[in-house]
């Protein structure tokens, strides 16, 4: 029974494997396990640095990058004109950041202008 308990504790400490197959070293698994948590972190950072009227003009995209961490970035969403044409803006500013899935650390925080 003690061996089974030890195996369960070891298995729990490995966490859940990210996209590249590397397990998080924390006993509790990844600090940012899903896109909703990554979005909440990104939103908090953005709100602390950007005026609310500016934030409303952007959409926020959150997804996994090739290293298995979360990447969040703002973009100007396409808009449809009254005549039916669609206007797509490339660039246009906004924040971009990488959120470490295992630790929750933010890196690569930039503001595009």
Account of the 3D structure:
- The structure is a single chain.
- This protein has one domain.
- The protein has 3 helices and 6 strands.
- It has helices spanning 2-13, 35-49, 52-55; strands at 59-64, 70-75, 79-80, 86-87, 94-99, 106-112.
- Strands 1-2-5-6 form a 4-stranded antiparallel beta sheet, covered by helices on one side. Strands 3-4 form a two-stranded antiparallel sheet.
- It starts with a helix and ends with a strand.
Number of domain units = 1
Sheet of most strands: 4 strands, antiparallel
Strand order of the largest sheet: 1-2-5-6
* Order of secondary-structure elements: HHHEEEEEE
SSE-based structural type: alpha+beta
Rg measurement, Å: 19 Å
What's the total number of strands?
6
Q: Report low-confidence residues grouped into runs of 5 or more.
A: 1-19
Show the helix and strand layout:
Blueprint: H1 2-13, H2 35-49, H3 52-55, E1 59-64, E2 70-75, E3 79-80, E4 86-87, E5 94-99, E6 106-112
Antiparallel strand pairs: 1-2, 2-5, 3-4, 5-6
Quick structural gist:
By secondary structure, the chain is of the alpha+beta class. Helix content is 27%, strand content 26%. It has one domain (15-112).
Name some characteristics of this structure:
disordered N terminus; alpha+beta; 113 residues; 3 helices; elongated
């Amino acid at each position: 029974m003690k061996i089974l308990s030890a195996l369960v504790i070891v298995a729990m400490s490995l966490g859940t494997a990210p996209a590249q197959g590397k397990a998080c070293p924390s006993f509790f698994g990844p600090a940012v396990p899903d896109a909703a948590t990554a979005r909440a972190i990104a939103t908090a950072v953005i709100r602390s640095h950007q005026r609310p009227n500016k934030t409303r003009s952007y959409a926020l995209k959150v997804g996994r990058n090739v290293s298995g961490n979360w990447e969040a970035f703002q973009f100007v969403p396409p808009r449809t004109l009254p005549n039916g044409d669609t206007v797509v803006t490339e660039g246009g500013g906004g924040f971009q950041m990488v959120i470490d899935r295992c630790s929750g650390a933010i890196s690569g925080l930039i503001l595009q202008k």
